[in-house]
């Protein structure tokens, strides 16, 4: 039986796969339970939704409604009281049920109009309502009801309702007017196809300048997905013609002219980029050039006098029990002296040792950070000095540094820095700060657009120390020597796999035999970490994890709603300080339980510490028999198995990055021809088109 009701949301439990479970009270105060699959936007306690669905009986949770349609609406009637008392937008105003009831008692159903009109005089007539919260109450009301209007508009045109908050954050109360004026303004949030469909439904002509400008933006966004921040005009014209199915340059030129008139692109020296990206690159270049022009710092700022550095290094060597080589000493002196400097080098050359020496030697402030949480944790363990993610530094530390301070900001795994993150770091850095970038240009470029570290490493204006001496202990595995050949574009000779041990080997097999050989190798080395080129597809992490889940789950306690069993390896894909978990944390499932509401809890162990993962955090917990090479960057494992198949993303940097994740043993399985071709070919990072240079 299908029923429809207006419901005030009371509690929400996000579930896996876009499903959420929530409860709410109807206009008669009756509490109902809802199962909402593929919810475009999670309800918020206090909101009012019109819900249609099929009533059913669950043997464990009792009566519930399977939602078929749901729409956010403005609250009316007695639901207004719940809305004002419970919605998070009014939390700081302490409205509560008493004040909300007093408001409704005074105005009844006209309360909606009083708040919408912002009538402060009428609201002041309510004795229980403090005068100082009247204006904030009106502003909060208008914000949330405006969102309801945007949600209704989006829903009516078949657009994702989850866009409402983003559009309001960007356009404010003009959001609806902006969308009516030009639906392609949603292009930054949804696909061109969806925008184009909407524009066609409201009668926009195919050659309307707004559409032509949007075509240019769309094609430039596609270029951004490949890392390019700038595109050649002639190349773009050809893309425009192909996209519109037209020959000749006239329409392409009209499109570019329309985009310029709309100020969404900048054209210069035969190249074009979106306005926002061009301004970001200019900002980054200006700030880097300012650092380079500001001169060197004096060692006396750190140690009291310029002659103290040798004694500081000697003290570190004495405590560490081993000497630094000449390259490492040069790198330390450079990092202390230069406002911007780079330390680079391949695997096993002692970059982390330099960071440890800097952290232990400095009397001034030093901040160590990396892009991923797992990499930050590794730096902390290796140096003994607390490191954080870049995001944590920007959000919680940068603003607390004294303006007169000249700290050393150290970014490890800096090859992963994209344009946007670089600009955020430069903007947040104290005026007198020094910036040290540590990394390996031969590793993977950033996932997002831009190419900062690689371009800085090429610049003669930036001071750089390259470490080349391989540590004797790391050299014993044979991995550094093989990685050095790969780094140079030379295909190494690899022996066949003979079982657990040390070194690098290759198992050449056809694609349809890769998984069976992987199963065999994992039987030999159960704790080896599998690395894949991609997420989805036959040899992607999703399928590999599913294969091993089916094997492992037999006889174990399993929760099929999340597809996990006790004892399985997992990776957490989000920084969660409350649980001391970072993006990339690897752990193991230890158990499951469910609350009375039906909410699932997954019990895990991370680095020997028990953690309870529940609610919205479950979606960030994934099986980790196999992870992508990108996810592994910044981490190391005793043994690594790497699956090789022809792919657009397989290149020298990916193979090199995967290879250098192994400490003692690396086993490649798959296509040896694709392996060799990827190593010989120029890395894809070198093919990125960017404006950034200093």
How many β strands by DSSP?
A: 26
Q: Going across the biggest sheet, name each strand in turn.
A: 11-10-12-13-9-14
Mean pLDDT across every amino acid position: 89
DSSP strand content? 15-25%
How many helices in DSSP terms? 27
How far apart the termini lie comes to: 68 Å
Cα-atom radius of gyration: 29 Å
Which runs of at least 5 residues are low in confidence (pLDDT < 50)?
none
Q: Which structural category do the helix and sheet elements fall into?
A: alpha/beta
Helix content: 25-40%
What does this structure look like?
The chain is an alpha/beta fold. 39% of the residues lie in helices and 22% in strands. The strands form six sheets. It has a six-stranded parallel sheet with strand order 11-10-12-13-9-14, sandwiched between helices. The chain has a five-stranded mixed β-barrel with strand order 1-2-3-5-4. Strand 12 (408-411), helix 19 (419-428) and strand 13 form a beta-alpha-beta unit. The longest helix is centred in the N-terminal third of the chain and has 23 residues, at 134-156.
List the helices and strands and how they pair.
Elements: E1 2-14, E2 20-26, E3 31-36, E4 48-58, E5 62-73, H1 79-86, H2 96-107, H3 111-117, H4 120-123, H5 134-156, H6 163-171, H7 175-181, H8 192-201, H9 209-225, E6 231-232, H10 233-244, H11 250-261, E7 265-268, E8 271-274, H12 275-293, H13 300-303, H14 309-320, H15 326-337, E9 340-345, H16 351-361, E10 366-370, H17 373-383, E11 387-389, H18 390-397, E12 408-411, H19 419-428, E13 434-439, H20 452-458, E14 463-467, H21 472-475, H22 479-487, E15 503-508, H23 514-524, E16 529-532, H24 541-552, E17 558-559, E18 564-565, E19 569-572, E20 585-594, E21 600-606, E22 609-614, E23 621-623, E24 626-628, H25 629-632, E25 637-644, H26 652-659, E26 662-670, H27 672-680
Parallel strand pairs: 3-5, 9-13, 9-14, 10-11, 10-12, 12-13, 15-26, 16-24, 16-25, 25-26
Antiparallel strand pairs: 1-2, 1-4, 2-3, 4-5, 6-8, 7-8, 17-18, 19-20, 19-23, 20-21, 21-22
Helix pairs in contact: 1-2, 5-6, 9-10, 9-11, 10-11, 12-19, 15-16, 22-26
């Amino acid at each position: 039986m299908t029923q429809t009701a207006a419901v005030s949301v009371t509690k929400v439990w996000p579930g896996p796969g876009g499903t959420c479970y929530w409860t709410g009270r109807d206009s008669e105060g009756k509490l109902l339970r809802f199962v909402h699959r593929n919810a475009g936007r999670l309800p918020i306690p206090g909101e009012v939704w019109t819900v249609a669905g099929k009533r059913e009986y669950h043997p464990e949770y009792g009566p519930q409604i399977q939602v078929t349609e749901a729409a956010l609406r403005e609250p009316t009637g007695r639901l207004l009281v719940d809305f004002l008392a419970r919605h998070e937008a009014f939390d700081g105003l302490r409205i509560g049920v008493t004040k909300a009831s007093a408001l409704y008692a005074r105005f009844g159903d006209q309360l909606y109009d009083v708040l919408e009109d912002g009538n402060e005089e009428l609201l002041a007539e309510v004795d229980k309502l403090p005068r100082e919260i009247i204006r904030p109450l009106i502003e909060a009301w208008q914000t949330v009801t405006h969102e309801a209007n945007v949600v209704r508009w989006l829903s009516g045109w078949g657009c994702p309702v989850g866009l409402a908050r983003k559009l309001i954050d960007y356009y404010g109360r003009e959001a609806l007017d902006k969308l009516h004026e030009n639906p392609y303004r949603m292009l930054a949030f949804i696909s061109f196809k969806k925008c184009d469909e909407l524009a066609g439904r409201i009668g926009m002509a195919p050659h309307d300048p707004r559409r032509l400008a949007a075509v240019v933006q769309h094609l430039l966004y596609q270029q951004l997905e490949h890392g390019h921040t700038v595109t050649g005009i002639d190349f773009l014209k050809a893309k425009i013609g192909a996209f519109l199915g037209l020959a000749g340059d006239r329409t392409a030129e009209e499109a570019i002219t329309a985009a310029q008139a709309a100020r969404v692109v900048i054209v210069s020296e035969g190249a074009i980029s979106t306005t926002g990206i061009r301004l970001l690159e200019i900002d980054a270049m200006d700030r880097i050039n300012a650092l380079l022009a500001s001169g060197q710092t004096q060692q006396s700022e750190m140690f009291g006098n310029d002659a103290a550095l040798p004694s500081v290094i000697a003290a570190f060597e004495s405590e560490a029990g081993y000497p630094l080589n000449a390259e490492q000493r040069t790198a330390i002196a450079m990092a202390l002296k230069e406002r911007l400097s780079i330390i680079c080098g391949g695997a096993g050359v002692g970059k982390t040792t330099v960071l440890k020496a800097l952290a232990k030697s400095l009397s001034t402030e030093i901040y160590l950070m990396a892009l991923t949480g797992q990499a930050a944790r590794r730096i902390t363990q290796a140096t003994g000095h607390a490191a954080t993610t870049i995001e944590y530094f920007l959000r919680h530390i940068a603003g607390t540094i004294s303006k007169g301070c000249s700290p050393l900001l150290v970014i490890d795994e800096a090859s992963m820095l994209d344009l946007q993150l670089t600009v955020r770091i430069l903007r947040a850095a104290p005026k007198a700060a020094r910036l040290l970038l540590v990394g390996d240009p031969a590793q993977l470029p950033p996932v997002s657009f831009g190419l900062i570290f690689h371009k800085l490493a090429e610049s003669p204006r930036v001071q750089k120390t390259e470490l080349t001496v391989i540590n004797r202990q790391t050299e014993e595995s044979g991995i550094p020597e093989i990685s050095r050949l790969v780094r140079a574009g030379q295909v190494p000779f690899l022996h066949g796999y003979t079982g657990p041990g040390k070194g690098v080997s290759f198992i050449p097999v056809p694609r349809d035999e890769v998984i069976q050989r992987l199963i065999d190798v994992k039987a030999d080395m159960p704790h080896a970490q599998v690395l894949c080129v991609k997420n989805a597809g036959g040899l992607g992490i999703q399928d590999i994890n599913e294969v091993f889940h089916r094997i492992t789950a037999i006889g174990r306690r399993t929760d099929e709603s999340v597809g996990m069993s006790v004892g399985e390896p997992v990776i957490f894909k989000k920084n969660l300080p409350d649980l001391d978990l970072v993006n990339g944390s690897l752990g193991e499932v230890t158990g499951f339980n469910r609350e009375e509401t039906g909410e699932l809890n997954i019990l895990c162990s991370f680095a020997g510490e028990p953690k309870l993962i529940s609610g919205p955090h479950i979606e960030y917990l994934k099986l980790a028999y196999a992870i992508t090479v990108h996810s592994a960057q910044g981490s190391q494992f005793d043994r690594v198995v790497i699956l090789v198949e022809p792919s657009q993303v397989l290149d020298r940097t990916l193979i090199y990055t995967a290879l250098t994740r192994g400490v003692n043993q690396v086993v490649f399985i798959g296509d040896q021809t694709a392996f060799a071709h990827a190593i010989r070919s120029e890395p894809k990072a070198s093919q990125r088109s960017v404006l950034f240079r200093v």
